[in-house]
Amino acid sequence: MCGIVGYTGHENARDIIIDGLKKLEYRGYDSAGIAMQSKGELIVRKQKGKIANLEKTIADEHLYGTTGIGHTRWATHGVPSDLNAHPHVSGDGSIAIVHNGIVENYVELRRQLTEEYGVVFRTDTDSEVIAHLVSVLHKGKLEDAVLEAVKRMKGAYAFAAISKDEPGKIVAFRKDAPLIAGLGRGCNFIASDIPALLKYLNKIYLIENDELVICTPEQIQILDQQKNPVKREVLQVTWSLEDAEKEGYEHFMLKEIHEQPKAIRETLTRRLDENGRIRLDGISLTLEDLEHFNKIYIVACGTAYHAGLVGKYIIEKMARIPVEVDVASEFRYRDPFVDDRTLFIAISQSGETLDTLAALREAKRKGARVLSVVNVVGSSVARESDDVFYTWAGPEIAVASTKAYTTQLICLYLIALYMADLRGTISQSYYQEVLAELQAIPDKVSTIISRAGEIEELAKYLYNRDQVFFIGRGIDSAVAYEGSLKLKEVSYINSFAIAAGELKHGTIALMEPETIVIALATQDFLFDKMYSNIVEVKARMAHVVSIAKEGDEKIREESTEVIYIPRCADEVTPLLSVIPLQLFAYYVARERGEDIDKPRNLAKSVTVE
Ligand code: M6R
Asked: 192, 252, 347, 349: which to mutate for ligand 1, most atoms within 8 A of CB?
């Protein structure tokens, strides 16, 4: 939540920072701001709303400075407003800070600063305390003040500070929120996320927890809390600038839906050796390990959790190990049965979701082995896991997750097949069959995308309804949850997903003439059961849109519309059936005129509780 960018060099920081912030707007977009060192003073401009508002406001001003920090906000403490926007500045105007995360003891710090130093607070944020705290502790060097300040702060955060008296210097500190430093030519950067810097560089340092960065145009120094220098390997970033640009697409969500064939292919083929067998780079699971585990937990949030639901079906079916799936915010507080015989799988696109990270730590504390499926290299979840299996989705910018989901699924299929093969719970022919099915997926996804026009037409017809139900059985029910989440988060239509067999235990009471029901009926072995559920809702005059495999003609009898996916094995249908649902959500939201890439109240990465 919230994006941070800092630049120090020889060019005007203003445009570089604004440009970087635009790349981070998916992290929060309720206000934005910038602070720069200029002629021995700090210039600060901040404004409620999108970065474009700020940009417009400062367009005619001659703002110049070669060192500065910027911020795009997702409000936690205090409403979105000009005042609550970052940067926050100390009372004497000497220190400006931008902050991502939460200062948990801000109330206590506010009281102390008011009583002991007479500080007057101007905002409702927790962040403002950092500016005042650093300022009252600033006796010599900014880095010393920051290190003193963080001794008094509790919470999960990353922040960057500049002082009017130390030209060319940005000091940043990380504790449980993402922070990177970027090596430019004659300039250096700090940022919360890689996309902000892709235009300028491809070499970064990943900053670890409890580390301080001092950034000047000449160098980047990383220090621990005792001020010992930290030696860090430079990380070469493989993402390209184009990955973080819309490249002619109207929205990032649509671009990312279209990128799925490529992302799936990348994630898959990098894990197949020359003999067509799975090679799990980054994972060191042996047969002995697998025999030792008596249970797998898959824990995640939102869309990643929905990928986990599919994971349960396939791991249990193929590897025959019991799997529990839980949302991270529940898992972390319910004292789950976890011990050293548990394999804990965390799934996270960003690798920074606080609940997922906390659940992972809880599982580790109880002795579990932790394997994570993550998209962002070097993210917190990746770093704290015993084994990491990266999705090769490239940066996902739209808040609504699409290509991260399908690549997470690919990773779970590979993990399931790999485990099953080691344990001998599947035959070699089945192993090869499923692998061949997976290899055929990218082209089949392209086929579905090439028929997006049909879904667009359907969306034009249905976009103004106020309620949609998603139903399915077996692995289809897992996809129903994802379809429902996609629709509600971008279109704001009230949608609800349920295992179809559960309908008659209550929810069917909501069926009325013209209620929209999206029925996933892709499982051959459950087809008759699902058909009966469709008949039940159709009998209540529902408008049924079925998702079925090509060739299933019978389903037309009871469906108002049918969207066909190419034929494939039952096991791999989620990789295809989710595509029309993503497109449906996208086109409905577009028809309704919603801000698709930046839905209200949401942010891409939820780094607060
Ligand atoms: O970065 P993560 O995968 O950990 O994020 C988890 C959820 O916050 C995320 O999937 C969210 O549900 C998306 N907005 C869904 O589209």
From this structure: 349
User: Ligand 1 atom 4: the closest Cα is on which residue?
Assistant: 348
Instruction: Establish whether the linkage from the previous residue to 87 is cis, with ω within 30° of 0.
Output: yes
pLDDT category at 162 given cuts 50, 70, 90 is: very high
DSSP, collapsed to helix, strand or coil, labels residue 96 as strand
Q: State in Å: Cα 472 to ligand 1 middle.
A: 22
Reply yes or no on whether the pLDDT at 584 is more than 90.
Answer: yes
Q: How far is CA 114 from CA 118, 136, 467, in A?
A: 4, 11, 50
Would the pLDDT of 514 be above 90? no
**Mean pLDDT calculated for residue range 444-453:** 98
Q: Would you name the residues annotated as active-site residues?
A: 2, 604
Using the mean position of ligand 1's atoms as its centre, give its distance from the Cα of residue 26 in Å. Answer: 12
**393: three-class secondary structure by DSSP:** coil
The SS3 assignment for 41 reads: strand
Tokens 């839906």 identify what position?
257
pLDDT of 319 > 90? The answer is yes
Q: What is the mean pLDDT of the chain?
A: 95
Does position 608 have pLDDT exceeding 80, yes or no? no
Domains of the chain: 3-243 (3.60.20.10), 252-449 (3.40.50.10490), 452-591 (3.40.50.10490)
Residue 500 corresponds to which tokens in the numbers above? 């179809």
Name residues contacting ligand 1 (CB within 6 A): 301-304, 348-350, 353, 356, 399-401, 485, 489, 605-606
Q: How far is CA 390 from the centre of its chain?
A: 14
Single-letter code of the amino acid located at 301: C
pLDDT digit string (tens) for 394-416?
999 999 999 999 999 999 999 99
Q: Which atom of ligand 1 is nearest to the CA of 303?
A: 10
